[in-house]
Structure formats: structure tokens, C-alpha cells
């Protein structure tokens, strides 16, 4: 009798050019691979069909989201072992296996028997349907007003209760600022998020009575913090109906309706400047490379002279031939449709081309790794409730996305930066004191 795990292990080695660094446990009870460490659990034949029809990252992701594949043991260790063979194998620009390369590997001499046994295991030749959580086929040009609204809705309109469970009471969906790290020394996620919001406000030098525009305001945490702690008037804009509804409730409950206005509005539609300051925290990743200069120019127009912008944005390492980086297959299909990352140098250059003077760049890469691990811990500790609030597939999406992203930040595959920029007066006055006074 042919053991499924052994066949899968041999075929994986043909494609990878090296043994799979995880033990395989197949649906027939067979096991193959390293004795120590985590294992890849192949629960059914459908998982194999997914990988045959979509080799590499997207096939693995679909199997994971559908529950056809699972990880036994430490998820972080498993992803770390796979990263070098899958996500990083094709160099800077490549992020998954090309189907042609898989076919070429499986046609190589000595693989015929293994391929035949693999096809016999699969039985049904047709590709399985993608999980329901996958974004359907998108039409038209990326980053139009309508398509951006649909992309934001896919990611954020999945239930405020689910986000509260993952993010914790702060309801801040960007990296915290862990002033006392490691977090086991007494720091908490809520304290880290408070410190991050406070840092943003200090960099913006907010004063009572000023007007702040919070672009991509989420559930209103930055707006509430700025209004309470710094007595400013805030306009927060988001494209998510669910975010806006909860943000308005929070504002009303705190008696801040006279200071905070929450709008369902695209930043491109804001026309009531000038503002004294603008915060954009974790929003610019949705803008896209083609529209980034227009984004920067719009924010520049909305500021008064000496007004400040704090742009908090995830970045990618520079690539040899591309200025921007489209999110990989899993992230684009399940997490952030149409999201794009760019190197921090490109961001700084475009902000300056729009007219800003960039005054400071602070790297928070390690802070995001700590934040993501805290979010994963929240999700895992409340797994059954998370599944009840959304779906098993959606909970799996979030667990994989956050755990893999934590490793990406830890290994410097991704970064996150706070860029402080100012709209100087015509004669070059910035209003910013020398040195990092915040």
C-alpha cells in the first residue's frame, strides 16, 4: 500500500530541490520527514489538488483557510522553516513558485513513478473552489473610489466585535510603541498603543483648539486620544461603515461629539481645510504606487503653512527592478486587496516632491513584531469566540497573516516607519524647533 506522506515528501523534494523541512502527516495516518519540530498536516486529498493547481504560497494558503491543511506544533517555527524555501526562494522579486517550474521539476528523470503515485492519490482531477473568504475576481482599474471602498469593506467590515477581540480594548490597528520591551517585563498591548498615540500627538505638536485630520481613522482611537489628551478638534475619515458606526458610538459615549466628527469619506473627497495637523496611521498602504504622489499632494493642500503630517506606514525592502511591491498572493486575496508596499526612501521622495519638508523618520520595525505576536495571542486565547463571530476560515486567515507578518518584521523583510513632514511657509519657516523635542 502506498503511503501518502512518503509520496508527498518525495514530490515536494523534487520541486524544492531539498527535503521539506517539516514532517508530513497525511490523511491516511502515514508520516514522513523530520522527527523533531512542527509538522504539516494534510487532512485530505483536496489539499493536494489545491497545491497541484496553484503551486506555492497561494495553494498552501487556500488549503490552510479551507482547513485542508494545518500545522501541528509551533506555527511560528513552521512558517520560519518554510519561508526560505517558499516565500524567499525566488529572490527579491519572486514570492511563489511558478507553475511552469513545478511542471518542469515533476517531469525530470526519476520522478515519473512519484508523479503517477501523486496523481493516483488525488483521484479527482478538477481544481477545488477557493474558500469563501477569498476576494472574488476584481474588475476595472485598481484604486478607483469604488474599488477602494470594496477593498476596505472586505478587510474591515467583518464585525467590530471580532476586531475588539483581536486588538484588545485600545482598538488600535497599527503597531504599538513598546517603550519597555520585552513585554514580559510589565508592558501591555494597551500601554504600547497608548504610548504610540501619544508619540504621534507629540510629533504633531498638537495644541488646544487646533484642527486635526485623521486619515483612515479606524474605530476612532486616535481621534479620541487627541481630543481628550490635547483638546483638539478632529475630523476622522474612513471608508468602512462598520468602523465609522462604532467610532461615532465611542465618541458619543465619551461626550466628545462637539470635538470629533467621524465621516465615511475618501481622503480624496476631503475639501474643508486648512488643518493644523494630519495623522495618517496605517492607511497609506492602501493608496497604491500610482496614486501616492496625488495622495501626498492632497494632504499638502489640506494643511496650513507650518502644518505637520505624521505618516505611519509599512514599508518593504528595496527591490532591484520595482519601485513598489504588490502584496503577495495570500495577502492580496485574503487580507488587503490591492494593497501595495514601497521602500521608505520612495515614500520620503514622493512626500518631498509633493512639497513637504521631511523632518524625521523613526523606524518601528521591532515594535510591530511585538504587537503582532500580542494580537496572535489574543486570537488564540479566544479562538472559539473568534470563529463564532466570523467563520473558521476568517479566523485562520488572521492567524496565518499575523503570525507570518510578525516573522517578516523580525527578519527585516518588512519595516514600518513614522515620517514627520511639514508644510513650510513660502520663506521656508517650518515652526519646528531644532532637535527631537517631542
From TrEMBL:
<dbReference type="Pfam" id="PF02353">
    <property type="entry name" value="CMAS"/>
</dbReference>
<dbReference type="InterPro" id="IPR020803">
    <property type="entry name" value="MeTfrase_dom"/>
</dbReference>
<keyword id="KW-0808">Transferase</keyword>
<feature type="domain" description="Polyketide synthase-like methyltransferase">
    <location>
        <begin position="162"/>
        <end position="421"/>
    </location>
</feature>
<dbReference type="InterPro" id="IPR029063">
    <property type="entry name" value="SAM-dependent_MTases_sf"/>
</dbReference>
<dbReference type="GO" id="GO:0008168">
    <property type="term" value="F:methyltransferase activity"/>
</dbReference>
<protein>
    <submittedName>
        <fullName>Cyclopropane-fatty-acyl-phospholipid synthase</fullName>
    </submittedName>
</protein>
<dbReference type="GO" id="GO:0008610">
    <property type="term" value="P:lipid biosynthetic process"/>
</dbReference>
<dbReference type="InterPro" id="IPR050723">
    <property type="entry name" value="CFA/CMAS"/>
</dbReference>
<dbReference type="InterPro" id="IPR003333">
    <property type="entry name" value="CMAS"/>
</dbReference>
<keyword id="KW-0489">Methyltransferase</keyword>
<comment type="similarity">
    <text>Belongs to the CFA/CMAS family.</text>
</comment>
<keyword id="KW-0949">S-adenosyl-L-methionine</keyword>
<dbReference type="GO" id="GO:0032259">
    <property type="term" value="P:methylation"/>
</dbReference>
<keyword id="KW-0443">Lipid metabolism</keyword>
